[in-house]
Design brief:
Layout: H1 3-9, E1 13-18, H2 23-33, E2 39-46, H3 50-60, E3 64-67, H4 73-79, E4 86-89, H5 91-99, E5 104-107, H6 115-123, E6 127-130, H7 133-149, E7 153-156, H8 159-167, E8 176-183, H9 193-196, H10 201-205, H11 214-222, H12 224-236, E9 244-248, E10 254-260, E11 265-269, H13 275-283, H14 297-300, H15 314-325, H16 329-345, H17 351-364, H18 373-393
Parallel strand pairs: 1-2, 1-5, 2-3, 3-4, 5-6, 6-7, 8-9
Antiparallel strand pairs: 8-10, 10-11
This protein binds nicotinamide-adenine-dinucleotide and magnesium ion.
């Protein structure tokens, strides 16, 4: 029986949300809560936000609630006393949450920190709704090999990849010429390079269309997010790097497109609300109702498109080079970017230095093939160390 049929037959569907207190996590919880009969929660996890985690756990009654920061264990324990929800803390406990027998796991932790628990879910052969693009960027083929080996199913949550997934003819990939990732261009789409040097973290996280976590918001402002997404798309779809295009589309209504050999271009459209792609993965292979605002193209009136500007957004060039280089390069780029974004948010470096720290880290950490998971961890750590040293010196 096909995985989709097995999954559809499982009623109620047991679900786990890794990173339930974040932007994607809260949107996922919102959808799950609308149908208590269909979705039963196995585990919820958070980094340190005990207040939101405990509140979600009281409402959804998971079997297990995990806080990664173990100094918050007592607070969580106290907040959930008398509920029957088991409480655990620490990074190991994240994998314990992913180990629980949920048919569907939302991977919504931000950054490479999400890799280990996501892989735990993959190794159970679960359906993994993947929001955490960084784990696919940093582990690449090592991760997709695990997905294949354990017969797991990866469903993309990232709006662009979810759009492509919906219109991609997986039975005839040879008939596909290109995939077109749309990009909002972020808050600085119109800003000159010298003005970008002075932007603040508050300006960078104020995304025009989407309300997201701080890290991805800064990535959208540098357009590193689109660079990460090119690499994510390369691993999710049977296309080569040259078939992946980027098109700036400031309204974020056309979420992405697939171009076929006969000249047809199929797109998925919708209001910019993550609950649509999340719902697609949650109900897959079925669909469920969502309260998302319906698209009113007459009210919107016009949709704009323009090519990306590689000179003002060098992260796009860098990500292409990194994908071309392969091996450890994407792992290094991702780790250095995580460190640089954190430093920018802490006012330690300027906006334009984010990408320059990433580029310099790539120059300093030797490129080699990436064969195994322990190498991913080692390279990730090394790149973080180099990036931190560069920041200290700046
Ligand atoms: P967020 O910062 O709002 O939430 C991150 C979640 O991960 C929180 O629950 C946090 O507690 C948890 N977390 C953070 N660091 C952790 C750690 N070290 N260990 C364990 N848990 C940790 O982020 P977000 O915007 O929800 O994004 C989550 C992921 O989804 C990212 O990879 C992002 O690129 C991707 N994504 C987000 C959106 C969006 O609309 N927010 C869209 C597409 C893709
Ligand atoms: Mg996206």
């Amino acid at each position: 029986m096909a995985v989709s049929a097995i999954v559809e037959a499982a009623r109620p569907r047991r679900v786990t949300v890794l990173g339930s207190t974040g932007s994607v996590g809260c949107n996922t919880v919102d959808l799950i809560e609308r149908d208590h009969a269909t979705y039963v929660v196995e585990a919820l996890t958070a980094q340190s936000n005990v207040a939101v985690l405990a509140d979600q756990a009281r409402r959804l009654r998971p079997k297990l609630a995990v806080v990664a920061d173990d100094s918050r264990y007592k607070d969580l324990k106290q907040a959930l006393s008398g509920t029957g929800v088991r409480v655990a803390a620490g990074t190991e406990a994240l994998s314990e949450a992913a180990e629980r027998p949920a048919e569907w796991v939302m991977a919504a932790i931000v950054g490479a920190a999400g890799l280990a628990p996501t892989l735990t879910a993959v190794r159970r052969g679960a359906v993994v709704a993947l929001a955490n693009k960084e784990c696919l960027v940093c582990a690449g083929e090592v991760m997709t090999a695990e997905v294949a080996k354990h017969n797991a199913t990866l469903l993309p949550v990232d709006s662009e990849h979810n759009a492509i997934y919906q219109v991609f003819d997986f039975e005839r990939p040879e008939r596909i010429e290109r995939i077109i990732l749309t990009a909002s261009g972020g808050p600085f789409l119109q800003l000159e390079l010298d003005a970008m040097a002075a932007v603040t973290p508050a300006q960078a996280v104020a995304h025009p269309n989407w309300n997201m976590g701080a890290k991805i918001s800064v990535d959208s402002a540098t357009m590193m997010n689109k660079g990460l997404e090119v690499i994510e798309a390369y691993h999710l779809f049977p296309v080569n790097a040259g078939q992946i295009e980027i098109l700036v589309h400031p309204q974020s209504v056309v979420h992405s497109m697939v171009g076929y050999c006969d000249g047809s271009v199929l797109a998925q459209l919708g209001a910019p609300d993550m609950r649509t792609p999340i719902a697609y993965t949650l109900a897959w292979p079925d669909r469920i109702d969502t309260p998302v605002q319906r698209l009113d193209l007459a009210a919107i009136g016009r949709l704009d498109f323009e090519p990306p500007d590689l000179s003002r957004f060098p992260a796009l060039r860098l990500a292409r080079e990194v994908l071309e280089a392969g091996g450890r390069a994407p792992t290094i780029m991702n780790a250095a970017n995580e460190i640089a974004v954190r430093a920018f948010l802490a006012h330690e470096i300027g906006f334009l230095e984010i990408v320059s720290v990433v580029e310099q880290t790539l120059e300093r950490v030797p490129e080699q093939p990436l064969r195994a998971l322990d190498e991913v961890h080692a390279v990730d750590l090394e790149a973080r160390r180099v990036a931190k040293a560069l920041i200290l010196r700046s």
